[in-house]
């Protein structure tokens, strides 16, 4: 009798837990970037944040949205991608503004600039012949937006032409989540190369691990496409490998190879 009496309470409670998990998935990925954004804004220094993190996450989440058109998955995962794209654009805008303000004698570099130095004195041309050496190191936020729109347009057109191919759709899904899953690999490689985790925040890695574990469990319990679960597990393994490096190098310290200090990497949950 008591069980029946509490039934009205259990259903809303289950729904609240479900909503909470969905909310954590949608917004959890951007939480680490909030203090990063505030720090950059407060210090007016973006040297500690690599804009290549934004590049990887923009590509991964644009591909994930395109994958949704071929194979619908959980709505929170779709919204997560949309929120992450907007967040990365905001980070790029702030980093670009800060960098330009700090570089008094900045050399103008643009996504649509030509290589010929003489042409740079002329009005801006849309020749799309940018210098790869300066790729993703432009002086205007507009250039980043143009690049993102160009990539989205090309990828979207290819997806439109191949949307009926099950093989293409599945490969697109794997490429999307694999790109994001590889975001922790540069940190893993850097630690291995220098035989040290100096400058790496252990709390940050623990946050990665807990977030990726929660995310992978969500994928498995909600029947997300196989790509999400496999790459989620891969992310957890990379996180555990980094934690293993931290333990090993702390208990068996070796003389680190001389190197230039690099800013700590950032990663989406």
UniProtKB/TrEMBL annotation:
Gene3D superfamilies of this UniProt entry? Answer: 1.20.1280.290
Kindly list the GO CC terms recorded for this protein: cytosol; endosome; membrane; trans-Golgi network
Q: What is its main location?
A: membrane
Q: Which organism is it from?
A: Cavia porcellus
Where does it localize? Membrane
Identify the keywords attached in UniProt to this record, alphabetized.
Answer: Membrane, Repeat, Transmembrane, Transmembrane helix
Q: Which SMART domains does this UniProt record tie to the protein?
A: CTNS (SM00679)
- Transmembrane stretches, start-end: 16-34, 46-70, 76-95, 141-160, 166-185
Kindly provide the name given to this protein in its UniProt entry.
Solute carrier family 66 member 2
Gene expressing this chain: SLC66A2
- Record's bilayer topology term: Multi-pass membrane protein
One Pfam family, short name:
PQ-loop
Instruction: Enumerate the Gene Ontology biological process terms.
Output: phospholipid translocation; retrograde transport, endosome to Golgi
């Amino acid at each position: 009798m008591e069980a029946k009496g509490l039934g009205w309470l259990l259903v809303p409670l289950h729904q609240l837990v479900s909503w909470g998990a969905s909310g954590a998935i949608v917004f959890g990925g951007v939480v680490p970037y909030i203090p990063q954004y505030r720090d950059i804004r407060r210090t007016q220094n973006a040297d500690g944040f690599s804009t290549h993190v934004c590049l990887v996450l923009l590509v991964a989440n644009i591909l994930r949205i395109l994958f949704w058109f071929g194979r619908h998955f959980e709505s929170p995962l779709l919204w997560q991608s949309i929120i992450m794209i907007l967040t990365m654009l905001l980070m790029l805008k702030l980093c670009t503004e800060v960098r330009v303000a700090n570089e008094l004698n900045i050399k103008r570099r643009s996504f649509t600039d030509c290589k010929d130095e003489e042409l740079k004195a002329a009005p801006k041309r849309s020749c799309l012949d940018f210098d790869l050496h300066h790729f993703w190191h432009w002086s205007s936020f507009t250039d980043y937006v143009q690049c993102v729109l160009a990539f989205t347009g090309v990828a979207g057109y290819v997806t439109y032409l191949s949307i009926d191919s099950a093989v293409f759709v599945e490969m697109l899904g794997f490429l999307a989540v694999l790109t994001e899953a590889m975001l922790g690999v540069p940190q893993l490689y850097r630690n291995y190369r220098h035989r040290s985790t100096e400058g790496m925040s252990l709390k940050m890695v623990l946050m990665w691990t807990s977030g990726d574990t929660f995310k992978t469990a969500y994928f498995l319990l909600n029947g997300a496409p196989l790509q999400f679960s496999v790459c989620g597990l891969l992310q957890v393994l990379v996180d555990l490998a980094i934690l293993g490096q931290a333990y090993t190098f702390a208990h068996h310290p070796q003389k680190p190879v001389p190197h230039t200090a690099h800013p700590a990497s950032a990663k989406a949950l």
